[in-house]
Amino acid sequence: MGIRYEYDDAVVRCFLKQQKKLFSEPVAESCEEAEAFLEDCMAAVVDGAREVADYFEEAGIDVEDPDRVLEEDEVFDVGDGRYLIVEG
Q1: 3-state secondary structure at position 19
Q2: For residue 44, which of 77, 13, 87, 73 has the smallest C-alpha distance?
Q3: Mean of the per-residue pLDDT values of the chain
């Protein structure tokens, strides 16, 4: 599995834009704050839906419907085939 803990501009902007999906209030207001937050919580970046499902399975995280894992609040679609997983 290709889990990475490196956050390029696309990943950081994705989280900054969609963070309210997971948190009721913003945890970051700038790209720098977003990147620092992702580093602090060791958010994972994976390639593709299969790797998202594998990540959840290996981490022992139960999901209601494994076929809908991409709809979990912790999963952010970067928009280029990659997914950011932030455990809140």
Answers
A1: helix
A2: 87
A3: 93
